[in-house]
Please model this.
Amino acid sequence: MAIPEFIRNIRAKAGDVLLLMPGVVMVVFDEQGRILLNQRTDSGRWALISGIPDPGEQPAQAAVREILEETGVSAVVERVLSVFSNEPIVYPNGDHAQYLDIVLRCRAVGGEARVNDDESLDVRWFARDELPPLGPIALSRIELALTDQPTWFVPADPPAAG
Model:
């Protein structure tokens, strides 16, 4: 996965300490209801399209940009599905990160699904009953995108009585 220049600049000063990073994850549907996935270069696994907003970039704009950059598909954002803080991870180079993901339901409006950058080995549309192996978090995000549920988030504990 390409490291954005602004992250390289932060890492040059902060080293490999844990960084809380914004992320956008998109569940993209076409007019047949198929879901757009990419096979990631870094892991070889199939995944929902995702990325990091640039400084000053709104999440929806980052989503539209990332979908086009990674897959060649033009899309519009329809709604926020969830806001979710992932478990911290350690990259092979030793960098620590934790992503706060904004998950968005999107609709394709043009373009052709293809590998469009060096972050994907393959890009394809999948019918819901033909999905490749995906992790439980990705599957739950797809399920949420298929409902009219309100935006999902982990509820806060009630404040301590004082």
